[in-house]
Every structure is written in C-alpha cells, then in structure tokens.
Design brief:
Layout lengths: L4 E8 L3 H9 L1 H7 L6 E7 L6 E7 L5 E12 L3 E6 L5 E10 L2 E9 L3 H11 L1 H19 L4
Antiparallel strand pairs: 1-7, 2-3, 3-4, 4-5, 5-6, 6-7
Helix pairs in contact: 1-2, 3-4
C-alpha cells in the first residue's frame, strides 16, 4: 500500500473539537483547502455517511476545478473517510486523536494503484499540493486559536 498512498501526520496545538470543526465546517474548509494560492466555493458539504461534498477549487491561474466526493464514514471526533471521484480518484482517511489540548491528526490519501498516484502527481501535482494543503491547515489552525 505504501507505494500508492500519501500520508500527513502531525500533533496539532489545538483541541480535538476545534480541529474537527475546521475539517467539517464549509465556512472553515473553504479558506484552507487546496494547494497554495487556491480558493474554494463549497457547493455542498453533507458530512454524514453517503453525504456529498461538492466544491469548486479556483486556481491562482484562473482555472476552476469541479471536485465531487462522497463521505463514506464519519465518526465524530475520531474519523472522516471520503472518496473523491473527479480530477483524480482516491480515498482519504483522516483520523483524530485527542491528546489533552492537542490533537494528533493522521491524513492518508490512498490511490487505486501506484500508477494512479504517479499519474495524479504528474498531471495535477497532487504530491506537492497535498503537502501545501496540509500546511495550509496547520497555518489556518494556528491563526484560528485565540491566545488566552
């Protein structure tokens, strides 16, 4: 499986409820989702099993990318699994683990094959984009946390 997956794992300086909210709220995810320079229009985000997630990603070059996904598994404060069907296909699993006032986040993108991952990397830059997306999440989270 290792040759067909991308993984991001990090201990975040935020409580699990906040990390969950940033992942499941269209108002938040539209701000940090995607590679550097992208903005988003969330058309539908029904965070429940078999719920649709439809968005338009607006590239910095003016290109629009229509993305359609379906949530497969939702376990509040524990796990989100969704499957993307457009642009490139993959299944994402995001796991949340509370560590007091911190959250361990593990984010995996699993492609059908090594060849599909290589093609998505060559065509869409998914490998670089994934790293940028994860860093945008971390940066947004640090801006969202209010100092005591």
């Amino acid at each position: 499986m290792a040759d067909r997956e991308l993984i991001f794992s990090r201990l975040l300086d935020a409580p699990i409820k906040l990390v969950w909210e940033i992942w499941t709220s269209p108002e938040h995810i539209k701000i940090w989702w995607g590679p550097d320079g992208f903005t988003n229009t969330i058309k539908k985000m029904d965070v429940q099993p078999n719920g649709e997630w439809n968005l338009t990603m607006h590239g910095p070059d003016g290109s629009d990318y229509e993305i359609k996904s379906v949530f497969r598994e939702i376990v509040k404060y524990k796990k989100i699994v969704y499957e993307q069907f457009t642009a490139f296909k993959y299944v994402a699993t995001i796991e949340f683990e509370s560590r007091g006032e911190q959250t361990l986040l593990r984010w995996q993108m699993l492609f059908e094959s090594k060849e599909n991952l290589i093609d998505a990397a060559k065509t869409y830059g998914v490998d670089t984009g994934f790293k940028q997306n994860a860093q945008r999440l971390v940066d947004y989270l640090s801006q969202t946390i209010q100092p005591l």
